[in-house]
Write a structure and sequence with these properties.
Layout: H1 3-18, H2 23-41, H3 47-65, H4 72-100, H5 110-134, H6 138-147, H7 153-180, H8 187-203, H9 208-213, H10 215-241, H11 244-262, H12 266-282, H13 294-314, H14 317-325, H15 333-351, H16 357-373, H17 386-394, H18 396-415, H19 427-452, H20 456-475, H21 478-507, E1 512-515, H22 536-545, E2 549-552
Parallel strand pairs: 1-2
Helix pairs in contact: 4-7, 4-8, 4-16, 4-20, 5-6, 5-14, 5-22, 7-8, 7-10, 8-16, 8-19, 10-11, 11-13, 12-13, 12-18, 15-18, 16-19, 16-20, 18-19, 19-20
Length: 553
């Protein structure tokens, strides 16, 4: 080897040892750095994001395996998930009972009319009937026609369908929110919060039968919330895809779904419209909560659909007929004061059921599990000022209050002074109310876990208190669920016996058959009024059985 070659190898070795680079190496490194900058600008995963993700995955794996820590810290990490599992089991059992009760659902009140209209008119015929003569809710009517097209099979399956679809939708939505905030996603704790929320929604109110088991009510007031959750999920998935055709399809679907919701339920229109309009403003790129205008565009499309549907409903002949049945009340100070009193009664009734604290406690458990299972990285909230974050955190309170006030005003205008007692219509604002309670609880639990994570005794005490409250809130639903089960099953047995008698009388050629009212859920039954000409329930029941009239037995 020549001296020149030895010298060149020596210089290269010195450059590597000193960390210096030659001109060609400097140019190559600059090109690589430019490539990395371009990749990061295009939205690829950065090294910091990858480390945060890997740290979160490692933490979740540590939680699943127990982390190999059998000391106080290991016990602390396992306590909140175990408590969440206990709460989830209790709430799951209650919801299973509610879903199974659908098998024992029998016709009452509006069921009688829906049954014979769906049988004789079909889905399109009943839709036309609702638009022309009933209330103008064409989406409501079409779904009613489909549901009752095979007799009572649809209403019997509907409770289980609502529980499953709402639960899965809320679970997936929670996952998307936690992913956006770059928080750990504990499966058991999240499922617990969802199950508790559903149990409270369906079983904690004053009209559990109407909210869960009575199809005319669930179509009008429970199904819209399911529709809203899945509509939001479709928008979130389209935003994540960043494909133009997917985003355009999501915006178009938002208009169509909003239009359908506008002819499905007026209280849901009021509540979802307020939430979507507020989100439209908050998601403007100028506020740095969203990267582009898609979120605002989607929310605006949903609001546009709601407006279109509301206009179709308002100008329909059926809606005009319904408004004529209840004289309009002028918006005076006295009427406004009476509406505020009704609104206060609604929230007094809700507040008196302390079982709703279970949603807050389930959220605290979720927050504790998130704080004790892994590292977190600042997400969208990390780019916002403290004032903006505070405004976003507080906004649910006035929005839910205003939405519930509009609902109460509509109930008073449609049903008179006692309209506020129609608790089935509360679902439209109870769903965001329970979600907000759970969210505030998760924030509180996360703060407690982050601050007291090293103090195992205090954090364990916080988890224990939250677990006790969540279990107590779930246990408080047991008596109401037992009563609901007993009354529903007993009525189904009595109804089947009476139905067999009526059909035997009809087969014998009698045109006036005996009927004994079987009351349930605060709903109207035949002979709810002494004037038969005004007894629409009895007339629909007679039409269903194919007889001239019912006579009280």
């Amino acid at each position: 080897m020549s001296r020149t070659t030895i010298s060149e190898h020596g210089d290269a070795l010195m450059r590597k040892t000193d960390g210096t680079t030659g001109p060609e190496e400097t140019e190559g490194r600059a090109g690589a750095e430019g490539t990395e900058d371009t990749a990061e600008a295009e939205g690829t995963e950065s090294t910091e994001d990858r480390e945060d993700r890997e740290g979160t995955e490692d933490a979740e794996g540590t939680e699943a395996t127990g982390g190999g820590d059998d000391g106080p810290q290991g016990v602390l990490r396992r306590l909140p998930p175990l408590l969440a599992l206990v709460v989830a089991a209790g709430a799951g059992v209650l919801l299973s009972v509610g879903a199974f009760l659908g098998v024992y659902v029998r016709p009452t009140s509006d069921d009688w009319c829906a049954l014979w209209k769906a049988r004789d008119m079909g889905p399109l015929g009943i839709t036309s009937d609702f638009y022309r003569t009933q209330n103008g809710r064409v989406t409501n009517a079409f779904l009613t026609g489909l549901l009752y097209s095979d007799g009572m099979l649809g209403p019997k399956l509907l409770p289980a369908f609502l529980i499953v679809t709402l639960g899965v939708g809320l679970f997936l939505l929670a996952r998307e929110v936690l992913r956006a905030l770059r928080l750990p996603f504990p499966v058991v704790a999240t499922a617990t919060a969802v199950l508790v929320l559903e149990a409270l929604l369906f079983l904690a109110g004053t009209r559990a039968y109407q909210v869960l088991l009575w199809a005319p009510s669930t179509i009008s007031h429970t199904l819209p919330s399911v529709l809203g959750v899945w509509a939001v999920l479709s928008g979130v998935w389209a935003a994540r895809s960043r494909r133009p055709w997917a985003r355009s399809a999501a915006v178009g679907a938002a208009v169509l779904l909003g239009t359908a919701a506008g002819t499905l339920s007026e209280p849901f229109v009021a509540m979802s419209g307020l939430l979507a309009a507020t989100a439209c403003v908050l998601c403007l790129p100028r506020l740095r909560l969203a990267h582009d205008r898609f979120a605002s565009t989607w929310c605006a499309a949903w609001c546009l659909g709601l407006v279109i549907g509301s206009v179709v409903l308002f100008v329909s002949p059926g809606a005009r007929w319904r408004r004529s049945q209840q004289p309009p009340r002028p918006l005076s100070l006295a009427e406004l004061g009476a509406t505020l009193q009704d609104w206060a009664r609604v929230w007094e009734t809700i507040g008196s059921q302390w079982a709703y604290a279970g949603a807050l406690a389930a959220g605290v458990l979720l927050g504790l599990v998130m704080a004790l299972t892994g590292r977190t990285a600042p997400g969208a909230a990390g780019r916002l000022s403290r004032g903006t974050v505070l405004v976003i955190a507080v906004l649910p309170v006035p929005l839910i209050a205003l939405g519930s006030l509009v609902t109460v005003y509509g109930l008073r205008g449609g049903y008179g002074a006692g309209g506020w007692t129609y608790a089935r219509a509360w679902t439209s604002f109870l769903v965001p109310f329970l979600i907000a309670l759970c969210g505030y609880g998760a924030w509180l639990g996360h703060r407690i876990g982050r601050r007291l994570g090293a103090r195992s005794v205090l954090a364990a005490a916080a988890a224990g208190i939250a677990g006790v409250v969540a279990v107590a809130g779930t246990a408080a639903l047991v008596p109401a669920t037992r009563t609901l089960t007993t009354r529903t099953v007993e009525r189904s047995v009595a109804w089947d016996r009476q139905d067999a008698t009526i059909r035997a009388e009809r087969a014998a050629g009698r045109e006036a058959v005996p009927y004994r009212p079987l009351l349930i859920g605060g709903l109207a039954e035949p002979f709810f009024t002494t004037v038969y000409a005004k007894d629409w329930v009895a007339q629909c029941a007679a039409r269903y059985y194919g007889v001239d009239r019912l006579r009280r037995s």
